[in-house]
Amino acid sequence: MVELEGKMMSGTLGATSPPGAAEVDRLLKRNYVLLVRAFLLRLVLFGALSATPVVLSRTGTWDSPVLAVLTVAGVLGFVLMAYRFPFALLSLGRCRRVLREYPLEFRSGMSKKSESRTKYGTVFTVRVKADERGRSPLMRAVDALERHRWPEGAEDGVWFAGDLPFGGVVVVPGSDTLLVVRPEDWAKFAEERQQAGPDRIDRARRTRLAKRVR
To answer: Residue 211 sits in which domain range?
Structure first.
């Protein structure tokens, strides 16, 4: 079922026509499924690392100080998972609000300028192309699922939902990738955010784009 949904994504979230509400809902559902699947997989893996040394020691199959290393690895895995999973949920929640509040606009491409590893995942510095001159500022982009790979095909065109001075969400056609983006230089656009009309400001507040998030 998940593979079928993925194929449907590739066909519907293309560059020829704006994705409809049904396609956006399927994309969000797909990302939630991937997040839950990754969570369960890690739960089993770290649970096995923590439990195996105890079982082997009690049954007398293997009794060695080395087993403690596996236990420590399992516990650290649980701690890391408990730390990062809520951030991924918050990122997907932000994507859901933005995609349901803002229309998707096609941009002719997105180029990667640099990347850096952080505790929140890989942060890409990108430029999302726009037809208007001066409306392609550098943005910080993070995969909503905290994956580290750069999405293939982003250079050929992406869909953007949001408001540039506040940030938004990038959808890569033919992919299940959702990128949360905000201006690289947040302070640079402070005046533009303050001078935005009440409708834009209310919209940004409802989607929580008005608040800077690391």
So the answer is: 1-214
